Amino acid sequence: MVDIVRKRFGLLGRNIHYSFSKGYFTDKFNNENFTGCTYENFDIPEISSFPEIIKNTSDLKGLNVTIPYKETVIPFLDKLSKKAAQIGAVNTIKITKKGKLKGYNTDYYGFKKSLEPLLQPHHKKALILGTGGASKGVAFALDELNIPYTFVSREAKENAVDYDRINATTFDNYQIIINATPVGTSPNVDAFPLIPYEFFTNKHIAYDLIYNPAETQFLKKAKQQGAQIKNGLDMLIFQAEKAWKIWNK
Question: The whole model's pTM is what?
Answer without folding.
Answer: 0.92
